[in-house]
Specification:
Number of helices of chain B: 9
Largest sheet of chain B: 8 strands, mixed
CATH superfamily of chain A: MetI-like
Shape of chain A: globular
Helix content of chain B: 25-40%
Radius of gyration of chain B: 20 Å
Number of domains of chain A: 1
Number of helices of chain A: 14
Number of strands of chain A: 0
CATH superfamily of chain B: P-loop containing nucleotide triphosphate hydrolases
Shape of chain B: globular
Order of helices and strands of chain B: EEEHEEHEHHHEHEHEEHHEE
Mean pLDDT of chain B: 89
Radius of gyration of chain A: 24 Å
Oligomer: heterodimer
Structural class of chain B: alpha/beta
Bound molecules: adenosine-5'-triphosphate, iron/sulfur cluster, magnesium ion
Strand content of chain B: 25-35%
Structural class of chain A: mainly alpha
Largest interface: A-B, 24 and 29 residues
Low-confidence stretches of chain B: 1-6
Distance between the termini of chain B: 28 Å
Low-confidence stretches of chain A: none
CATH architecture of chain B: 3-Layer(aba) Sandwich
Strand content of chain A: under 5%
Largest sheet of chain A: none
Chain lengths: 327, 310
């Protein structure tokens, strides 16, 4: 496949994905039982009927759904993402602010789970069948079936409540002015949420690395290297890692989607003011513009993760890279 | 050049059986024996060619000697190297040093490592690798290639180059010549011959019987997981009358330069072997004596596994 066709295909897939995501999210929020107006003014508000009507009119809540969606899509394409009902700020601003918190969290969790998971997977594969291997496997399987909020609560109650080592929530000490918040404060508040998120992401990469390395250790080229005198350490370092690194990195990039899914819950548990908790807020208050904005944003994010994985493969795998140069 | 051999064999395989434990339907475990009480010796200074049809267990023999059988394999019998038991520790210590292995296919090269690094391995040097490449007509550009970029013949020569990185006394070569031009194949075998003349032993598994005729000292014939006959190459060249086992006679007869007459029937599958002589179902000389356990016997400077052999 030629490069320009590849790019065109990618762009096309991206656009269809975004269209599908925004339509689907719109249908889901508008059909949810939450009334944005009630969520906005509260259930026992004393606001007059005229005022209510005015707000409804302003937000276009009574317009037919198709009209509302096309209006949103039209503005969106022009760069106007609308105003968040819940935060009373432009959607773009909310996403930018919140994402700057989340991206640190995600990056730490992602790197932590990637590196540690890769190493644990190699260790388990080399010691296949040992007690260590079994322990790692059981741990991963248990984590994989554990819900995020449960793991989050466990971490929270152990390290924050019982041991008191880390703060219970938020991104900075409560009541401290923004300009007084130190880097240390920030890091302090990041530890538990990123630990939770990282621990949740670790099992996939560990199990994948383990499985892949076990498969590779049975292959002909390992046997041959062995027959030429290499010991286990040399086999793993010279041939094993070389052959699993690329697929493992791909899996880790593809895990961007789970990372985004996990962050919504992890941030809620730790009241961390990132994009995940903004999403929860948006959902609970029927904040259509914000929800759609985040949905589109996260779709781009996840899509980019997969795209990076594909590009990396092409850049790093000699079978693709030099095969193309030859052909 | 092919005169007297030293008394102690370099490699001495005694009663080697290899079986794989496999799961049949559901969780029923079953042992599948693919090598049966196989014995052979390779003496310093000789090339022992191993021939036999596909699936008869030749590669398994090579892997057993190198100690690289898969985890589900069980080995019985003994392998001695220079008079001492070749157990796991000794295999680990000697392979890649005294014992070199040339594997059967391209799949034995690491797909993601450049060819030169791979040939050098952990014990070779850049100089040796360059010399080997020149020896086997591999261009400078091949050094930086990955295995997927090699042609079949190039890959074969790369695999052969690995064997000369080490100062081996024993070379186990699993079909080193297919895909090579005839001259290159001949040249390779002449190298083996020279190494043997310098005192090495070579276990040469091959399908190319003509080449084996030209360089080997003795030929071992494999059938259904065991060796049915080992005889000096001169007996093979003399024709089927000089051979001892009905299968080797038929094998020689089936060659294009002879009557080109295929042997009737099929080699039995490892899971459903006949009792007694494994060749019995296809043998015209079969009698009731052939139903017993078949031992290797020495007859006229060779060995054979047949009660009626003379
Ligand atoms: N890992 C394994 N598990 C079970 N059976 C195996 C395994 N490896 C090989 N076998 C069986 O052992 C038998 C001998 O195989 P082997 O590869 O030694 O044959 P070969 O004589 O080298 O054939 P060829 O000339 O095609 O290379 C075959 O029937 C094969 O199916
Ligand atoms: S032992 Fe009997 S069946 Fe087997 S090869 Fe000899 S004659 Fe044939
Ligand atoms: Mg073979």
């Amino acid at each position: 496949m030629s490069r320009s066709r590849y790019i065109a295909g990618t762009v096309f897939r991206m656009l269809t994905l975004l269209a599908a995501v925004s339509v689907l999210s719109f249908v889901l929020v508008t059909s949810s039982p939450i009334d944005p107006l009630t969520a906005y003014i509260g259930t026992n508000s004393t606001l007059s009927q005229e005022a209510r009507d005015e707000i409804t009119e302003h937000w276009g809540l009574d317009d037919p759904p198709v009209e509302r969606f096309t209006a949103w899509a039209g503005n969106f394409l022009k760069g106007d993402w609308g105003t968040s009902i819940a935060f009373k700020k432009p959607v773009k601003t909310v996403i930018k602010e919140r994402f700057s918190y989340s991206v640190v969290l995600m990056l730490i969790a992602w790197t932590f789970s990637g590196v540690l998971g890769f190493l644990a997977g190699i260790f388990a594969a080399v010691r296949k069948g040992s007690l260590w291997d079994k322990a790692i496997k059981v741990f991963c399987l248990a984590l994989q079936s554990a819900p995020t909020f449960w793991v989050g609560l466990l971490v929270l109650s152990l390290f924050a409540v019982q041991l008191g080592w880390f703060p219970i929530g938020l991104a900075a000490p409560m009541g401290k002015l923004a300009q007084d918040v130190t880097l240390e404060d920030r890091i302090w508040h990041l530890v538990l949420p990123s630990l939770t998120l990282g621990v949740l992401g670790i099992s996939k990469i560990t199990l994948y690395t383990r499985q892949k390395l076990i498969e590779i250790m049975d292959s002909g080229f390992i046997l041959f290297a062995k027959a030429r005198g290499e010991d286990t350490a040399q086999l793993v370092l010279r041939h094993g890692i070389r052959n699993i690194a690329l697929p493992a990195v791909t899996v880790q990039f593809a895990a961007f989607s789970e990372l985004f899914g996990g962050i919504a819950l992890a941030e809620s548990v730790f009241s961390y003011p990132g994009i995940g908790s903004a999403l929860t807020t948006a959902g609970l208050s029927g904040d259509v513009p914000l929800l759609l904005g985040i949905a589109v944003f996260s779709a781009v994010f996840v899509f980019t993760g997969n795209l990076i994985a594909n590009i990396l493969y092409g850049l790093l795998d000699p079978r693709i890279k030099e095969g193309r140069a030859d052909g | 050049m092919r005169e007297k051999k030293e008394r102690t064999p370099l490699l001495d395989v005694q009663g080697l059986s290899v079986s794989f434990s496999m799961y049949e339907r559901g969780l029923q475990k079953k042992d599948l024996e693919v090598l049966h009480k196989l014995s052979l010796g390779v003496y310093p200074g000789e090339i022992l060619a191993v021939v036999g049809s596909s699936g008869s267990g030749k590669s398994i023999l090579a892997h057993a000697v190198m100690g690289i059988l898969p985890g589900n394999a069980r080995v019985k019998g003994e392998i001695h190297y220079r008079g001492e038991l070749l157990d796991k520790e000794r295999q680990e210590a000697l392979r890649g040093k005294e014992i070199a292995f040339i594997p059967q296919s391209l799949a034995y090269l690491d797909p993601l490592m450049r060819v030169d690094r791979q040939v050098i391995g952990i014990r070779g040097t850049k100089e040796k690798q360059e010399a080997a490449f020149a020896r086997y007509h591999l261009g400078k550009e091949v050094e930086r290639m990955y295995p997927f970029q090699l042609s079949g013949g190039m890959a074969r020569r790369v695999l052969i180059s690995t064997a000369v990185m080490e100062e081996a006394r024993l070379i186990v070569a699993d079909e080193p010549t297919p895909g090579l031009h005839e001259e290159v194949a001949m040249e390779t075998l002449r190298d083996f011959r020279q190494l043997a003349d310098e005192g090495c032993g070579v276990l040469l598994i091959t399908h190319d019987i003509d080449l084996a005729f030209q360089v080997a000292d003795r030929i071992a014939v494999f059938y259904a997981g065991t060796i049915v006959e080992i005889a000096p190459v001169t007996d093979f060249l003399a024709g089927k009358e000089a051979l001892r086992h009905p299968y080797s006679k038929a094998f020689i007869d089936a060659l294009p330069q002879n009557s080109f007459k295929p042997i009737e029937g099929f080699q039995p599958y490892a899971g459903s072997l006949p009792e007694g002589c494994l060749f019995a179902p296809r043998c015209s000389a079969c009698s009731k004596e052939c139903a017993g356990e078949m031992e290797m016997r020495r007859i006229r400077d060779g060995e054979v596994r047949c009660v009626h052999a003379t």
